[in-house]
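Handout, section B. The chain below has 209 residues.
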Amino acid sequence: MRTDLYVTGTDTDVGKTYVTVQLLRELAAAQRVVGMKPVASGSERIDGVLRNADALQLMQASNVDADYATVNPYAFAPAIAPEYAARDAGVEIEVSVIRQTFDTLTQRSDLVLVEGAGGWLSPVTETIDQADVARALGIRDVLLVVGMGLGCVHRARATARAIEADGFRLKGWIANETGGDDPDLNNNLQAIERNLGAAAYRYFRYEPI
């Protein structure tokens, strides 16, 4: 039975891509793994085609051969919320398209790590949430990346509750020091662990790739 994983965060810019890349590199030693970024903003044109840096990093860390459009079916140029980027580009994001590309990746791999856009409650469109995407892909387990810093305990607990309220299982959480100073890092780590448990707990210090 597959145990594909949806990677989300307590907010945007908390290091989801960095963490997903580290996990892909580690897991690639024992199985066929591939990363997927269904929707990405802040993309640049390379040889006339939009490419997102996060998606490219996932491709480099994967050990499964897949073309760019399969890993990232929706790429938008402006670094704004996907909902607005898609609207401005005149593109309709369709869950069925994401599901088709996901199915292609599952046929070639043992595990797919799907990185969401923004935090768990960041809308994908006016009518599609992160939960809708994960549900359409048949993914039950969610990995939460917690950006450590002032207010991180609240954000971690609130996001965990939202994940579970949507009917998903919080597989685990990963603390990520996002480059800012956390004046009470150890206490914050202990508080989150006390509330969310220590399952699948890892700790990464953020280093841009």
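Note. Residues 95-108 form the longest helix (14 residues). Compare this with the example in section A.
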